[in-house]
Task: inverse folding
């Protein structure tokens, strides 16, 4: 166990975005203390259930930035304390809040984190904003026995699932998904002057497109029915678009644009976080983005696919995807993992894959009822491949 914990700490440290040396040293000290405690807490069975919770350690006691923080008497952070207080925390939503003190960790209370903690940033942006106090934090989320997600300084650092290390490198990078790479536009987002010059606007668009996929997958994953999300470039309302039937939306639902608006509000808020006007604008944009995603997830609960264009605008739902059954039913993994045999999968996988194969400029994500999540996409060489997909904060 200790070897796994040490490896997890080392991996997390190696994945830290470039930050001031003192911040990196602080993160290492915190993780060396917190990871073993969280690992032990994950194995404690309370009232028949293993605990699920998130604990955030702020570099400075930034309690004012947290929503409705309930203060506790300062407690030493131990496995037993975390297991007993896990009911106060909802993994990824409400965090236990602690600070480093006298070589250990002291629990301050619990509450909802600032919106900047709830949004994962591209690594190059995380490197640029790591100098701001609001990003100087480490979060460990316990998802089950020996299952920990570690985040910090605006990005994911490491993931341990049932004792096996899985790193962000196992997941697709935004521009590795052919559909996203081909539909990015360079004028999507104006980058503030304090962001690293190496970050290009189209990379921001790509990263937010991938995050939208994660949010949609997570929403459907928690539902009982799963769902299908289909994407195509240059959608025309009057064309059949490879569908037997669907329900068109009078006004497209702009998921990506609302997400980019929210991101811009955050980038404007971070340097001026004491501005109540900027704070209210950020919360308003966040609410609009979350509402759009939630609406799309609700649509996925109906029979058929949710259809979107290259701008991640929902244009129709309840779509019956129509395509000729392909001759080849063995789908190659995008990173040379195990091939997917569609003969052993259900109708959703087959229809999504057939629909993507039928023509260029398409992508489909399947969230099955057994909670498997796969994305079918066309690779650079034109072959349709699949990705295993793991949105953050999954069991």
Result:
């Amino acid at each position: 166990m200790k070897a796994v914990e040490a490896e997890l700490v080392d991996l997390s440290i190696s994945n830290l975005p470039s930050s001031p040396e003192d911040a990196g040293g602080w993160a290492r000290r915190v993780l060396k203390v917190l990871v073993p405690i969280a690992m032990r807490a994950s194995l404690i069975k309370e009232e028949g259930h293993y605990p699920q919770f998130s604990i955030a350690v702020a570099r400075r006691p930034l309690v004012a930035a947290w929503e409705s923080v309930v203060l506790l008497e300062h407690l030493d952070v131990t496995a037993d304390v975390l297991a007993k207080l896990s009911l106060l925390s909802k993994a990824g939503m409400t965090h236990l809040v602690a600070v480093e003190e006298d070589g250990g960790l002291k629990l301050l209370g619990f509450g909802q984190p600032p919106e900047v903690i709830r949004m994962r940033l591209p690594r190059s942006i995380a490197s640029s904003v790591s100098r701001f106090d609001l990003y100087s934090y480490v979060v460990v989320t316990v998802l089950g026995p020996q299952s920990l997600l570690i985040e910090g300084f605006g990005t994911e650092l490491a993931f341990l699932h049932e004792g096996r290390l899985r790193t962000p490198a196992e997941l697709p990078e935004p521009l590795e998904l052919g559909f996203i790479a081909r539909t990015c536009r360079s004028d999507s987002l104006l980058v503030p002057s304090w962001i690293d010059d190496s970050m290009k606007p189209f990379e921001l668009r790509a990263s937010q497109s991938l995050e939208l996929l994660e949010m949609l997958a997570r929403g459907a994953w928690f539902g009982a029915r799963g769902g299908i999300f289909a994407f195509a470039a240059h959608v025309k309302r009057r064309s059949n678009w490879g569908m037997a039937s669907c329900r068109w939306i009078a006004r497209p639902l702009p998921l990506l644009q609302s997400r980019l608006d929210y991101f811009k509000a955050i980038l404007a808020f971070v340097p001026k976080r004491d501005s109540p006007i900027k704070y209210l604008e950020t919360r308003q944009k966040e609410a609009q983005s979350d509402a759009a995603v939630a609406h799309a997830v609700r649509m996925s609960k109906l029979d058929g696919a949710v259809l979107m264009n290259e701008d991640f605008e929902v244009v129709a739902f309840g779509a019956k995807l129509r395509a000729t059954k392909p001759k080849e039913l063995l789908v190659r993994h995008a990173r040379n993992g195990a091939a997917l045999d569609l003969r052993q999968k259900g109708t959703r996988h087959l229809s999504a894959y057939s629909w993507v194969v039928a023509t260029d400029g398409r992508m489909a994500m399947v969230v099955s009822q057994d909670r498997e999540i796969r994305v079918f996409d066309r690779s650079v060489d034109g072959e349709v491949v699949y990705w295993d997909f793991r949105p953050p904060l999954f069991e």
Summary: Residues 172-388 form a domain with the YojJ-like (1 fold (CATH 3.40.1700.10). The mean pLDDT is 79. The longest helix spans residues 276-300. The first strand starts at residue 53 and ends at 58.
